[in-house]
Structure formats: structure tokens, C-alpha cells
Amino acid sequence: MSSIDYTKSLATLLRESTHEAHDQVAMSQGAKLLLSGGLSKEDYTRYLMMLWHVYDLLERALERHATNYSLEPTYNPALLARAPSLSADIAYLLQVDEGSWKSHPIHVQLISGSLSPLEAYVRRLEELSKSSDPSALLAHSYVRYLGDLSGGQVIRHTLAKAYNLDESTGLGLSFYAFKELRSSKPANQGEMKRIKEWFREGMNTAGERGVEVKIAVVEEANTAFKLNAGLFELLDRNWEAQKETKNEKRVVIEHGQPAERSYPLSQVVAVIAAVCLSHFVLTVGGFTGDKGYQKLLAIEQWFASIWQQASQ
């Protein structure tokens, strides 16, 4: 960090110092799957659920410190808040009421599994929220909101096509929709650019409060990118295999070791006798010509009936 010129504006410092971290996230396998619409609809819904947990905590932390000198210039929940939109999109994708998606099996499986990257993300936000100086939360606002205003808009059409969502209604896609800076109208691309400019100006205002703010935010921004990279790693997880493994473990826990299926001795003897007799008939019976073929069919039917009785 000693090579960083902290006389520059905070927005410039963040752009220059996080370039490498940003590229690493963008080139990850999980990011590629998301950007290409390559996730299954269920996995995409899981991703939105993970984002909801992040935004819910981040936005509650920002609300708690709304008057903090580093956070106040960019605090505008009516414009930026994403947690409500995520909740609406998740409910739409699952076709459930918005108040009930947290009890959906997909979400229950998600939060009951081993999600170290998500847990680390949430834990870090909690630490900053409880800190005597929560200035570093600005780094998380920067990484998340400017990403949503930029890259998030690029994939909106791809996701609509991948998951059969109607862009004209915006249902299931509200996470990527913003209102105008000065009104409640939907923001177009030009307005998105103005919102980003407003956000950068707010960051620069915060940075003018002292070099210690710049240092804290720049250092935390790289941490924020790493935490986001962790979420993308979870997108490459085989959730179906994990679910099957959990189900197998649950059977063992609840019922003990599965018992091997056994058959009465009489059934075993019947099957063996049927096999031996069939072999004898096939060997000496002379299965040639039409008459032989009819004899073979009869034997097959008889053997099948014996096997079925023995297996019941």
C-alpha cells in the first residue's frame, strides 16, 4: 500500500487499486456461468438468495450509520437499496409469496449447508457495522452498487432469455432495475451513468475528510472483491450431488445401517430349480425352426413368472 498516491481522489484510487482484483473475479468460472446464463434456474435463484443475505446486512449497517461522515454522502436507500428487489425476484422465480421464500427447500438447503464464503462475507459486514469507525463499509457499497449499475445491466437481457423472463414487465429482473436519480421513473443507461457519477462524487467527498478514510476504504475494497469471488466459487458447486449426499446421510442417521434384503430359503430354491430346469430344456429340447421358437417363448414366460413370484 506504500506505493499508492493518496493525494488522488478516492474514486480514482479505488479504480486503480482494485483493477487486478476486479479482473480475477470477472474471469472466475462462477462469473462466467452467471454472465452467460449458464446456471440452472435453481442455481441462479440460490445466487440471488446469497446476494440477499449480503445486501440485507449491508443495507441495515448503512442505515445504522447513515449520518457517519464517510457514509452519509452516498447514503440513498430509495435509489440504491437492492434487498427488497432481490426478495421480490426470488419469490417470483420460486412462484411463491414474497413472505414465504425463506422457508422454501432451496433456501433451507442453502443456509443449512457449509457456505464458508458467504459466512465470511456476512461476518465481515457484521464486524464493520459494529466497529467504532465503519468507514470501510463504503468499500462494500462501491463494489456492490457500482457493479450493479455497470456489469449488472449487461447481463439483464442474457438472464431474461436464459430463464424465460419477460423484460417488458421486469418480473424476476427487478434487481437490475434502478430509478432515476431525481425521480421515481425507471432509469435508462444515460441515467445509470449519472447515478454512478453522483456516487463517485459522494465517495470523493468522503475521502476529503482525511487520508485515513482513503486508506481504510481502499484496503477494504480489495477484501470486498475477494469476498465476492467466494460467492462465485459457490456457483460452481454441484448442489444436486450435495443434496443426494445429505439424503444418504440422513437415512443412515435416522434408520441406522440399511439392512440387506433377504429372501426365504424356499424362494431361493425355487429360483435355482427354475434356472436349472430351463438350462436343461434349452440344452436338450432342440430349439430350431418355428416350433422350437414357440417352445423357447413358453419357457421364457414360465421362467419370468417363477422369478416374479420369488422376488415378491
UniProtKB/TrEMBL annotation:
- Pfam annotation, one family: Heme_oxygenase
Q: Which residues form the signal peptide?
A: none
Q: Which UniProt keywords apply?
A: Heme, Iron, Metal-binding
The protein's GO terms of the molecular function aspect are: heme oxygenase (decyclizing) activity; metal ion binding
| Residues binding heme b, per UniProt | 15, 22, 142, 200
One GO term of the biological process aspect: heme oxidation
Q: Which InterPro entries match?
A: Haem_Oase (IPR002051), Haem_Oase-like (IPR016053), Haem_Oase-like_multi-hlx (IPR016084)
**By what name is this protein known?**
Uncharacterized protein
Classification from the root reads: Eukaryota, Fungi, Dikarya, Basidiomycota, Agaricomycotina
Q: Does the keyword Transport apply?
A: no
